[in-house]
Amino acid sequence: MTDSPIQIVCQRCTTKNRVPKDKLGNKPLCGKCKQLVLSTHPIVGSDANFRRYITDNGLPVVVDFWATWCGPCQQFAPIFEQVAGEMSTQACFVKLDTEQNQSTAGGYNIRSIPTLMIFHHGKEVARLSGALPKAQFQQWLAQNLPAV
């Protein structure tokens, strides 16, 4: 018997897809665009799509609020990318450029960058300001990601 389906927002076309939990690792395809529903790369978030990703996903959503001019953000980017690839069936990963998406960043009271946040069903679960080494980032995720 398969687990009950979980709703995943396609990272390419933002269509909602229902995927059985035990099939998340089987590279499910979007019913609309036929691309992989889960990506091993972070989603590029924007003011236009951010709410949809954090409210309509059954998986937790990990967000990196960053800016191009921020040195620590640039140093943390490859770590975020690598962990996103390793954990693509456990959470969706989103990068949001705070300079290009000031409305969303302001709405979440982002005052320093990088700021990491975890959302589940549209609600903030955890927040942390500052770049982390990979091991500490993974530990923070292990302590704060909700079970699906």
From TrEMBL:
Task: List the keywords (alphabetical).
Answer: Disulfide bond, Electron transport, Metal-binding, Redox-active center, Transport
Instruction: Output the Gene Ontology cellular-component terms.
Output: cytosol
Signal sequence segment: none
Q: Which residues form the Thioredoxin domain?
A: 13-146
The record ties this protein, via SUPFAM superfamilies, to: Thioredoxin-like
Among PROSITE patterns, the record links this protein to: THIOREDOXIN_1, THIOREDOXIN_2
Q: Name one GO molecular function term.
A: protein-disulfide reductase activity
Q: Which InterPro entries match?
A: Thio2_N, Thioredoxin, Thioredoxin-like_sf, Thioredoxin_CS, Thioredoxin_domain
For whether the record's keyword set contains Electron transport, the answer is yes
Query: What protein family does this chain belong to?
Result: Belongs to the thioredoxin family.
The protein here is known as: Thioredoxin
Tell me which species this is from: Marinomonas profundimaris
